[in-house]
Known about the structure:
4-stranded parallel beta sheet
Amino acid sequence: xxxxxxxxxxxxxxxxxxxxxxxxxxxxxxxxxxxxxxxxxxxxxxxxxxxxxxxxxxxxxxxxxxxxxxxxxxxxxxxxxxxxxxxxxxxxxxxxxxxxxxxxxxxxxxxxxxxxxxxxxxxxxxxxxxxxxxxxxxxxxxxxxxxxxxxxxxxxxxxxxxxxxxxxxxxxxxxxxxxxxxxxxxxxxxxxxxxxxxxxxxxxxxxxxxxxxxxxxxxxxxxxxxxxxxxxxxxxxxxxxxxxxxxxxxxxxxxxxxxxxxxxxxxxxxxxxxxxxxxxxxxxxxxxxxxxxxxxxxxxxxxxxxxxxxxxxxxxxxxxxxxxxxxxxxxxxxxxxxxxxxxxxxxxxx
Length: 350
């Protein structure tokens, strides 16, 4: 392994605390070539696809990357904006808002960097930017409320793989999950409450979470349990009855069985059974992206209406709303307590 020469950095003054914010990622453009490159990186992650490496590479490059990129590029085109990928554009706004909120409060002793697990800006690039500022302490914030090996652990792998190349590593803290944080439940509940107050209450509220293969769960991944815990706490906050809400899992890939119930099948069944109106929220996503804006807001809307439903609405992700930014700032402040840079926050609310 070739180590990064940091001798010049060691001579510099203490650069303070770095916060690395990370989300899933996005292709550079809604084109077949860009999507193929993105999917190749994403689907080559053994945390995402746990199939023997050689066999999966044959399937991935021989079948998947010959067929899926064109279809996915069309889906990306339907949600692409003037700012580019919604996920990246929103993540940049979250990054800027957190900087604006916390940098003055910590008297300039904190630096922020934004990365995507797959695609750009890369984790390697973001960590290098923080290294150039000579940070001595590092907080890693994956923007996944619920833990899964397919998401949170994959970020841990990528961050630590890069840090292994540093001769002088910073003190590191890693936020593993925040699905149970009262502030997260409060801001999520308020988002749903506000949407329903403006749009009316649908007959059913569906909590749709990104799915994982069933055997991942049976092997010990706690993700589905944390999804249920999030939904149950929000339902309690909203005061919903059992027949007013349901939980499901979306975004299946491949032929294997995933955790159930499936979102599209749930909506199809409801439409056929005479459910007239549905509102869907996706609490696993901190920012709107392909899976929420195309799959949920468009594709699954058609599924429900074609099955007999009459009214369908998607409740947006928390994105860069003030309440979400305040919650994330509080989460960061909680996890940096005890570090010298956080002394100015002692006894204060962010």
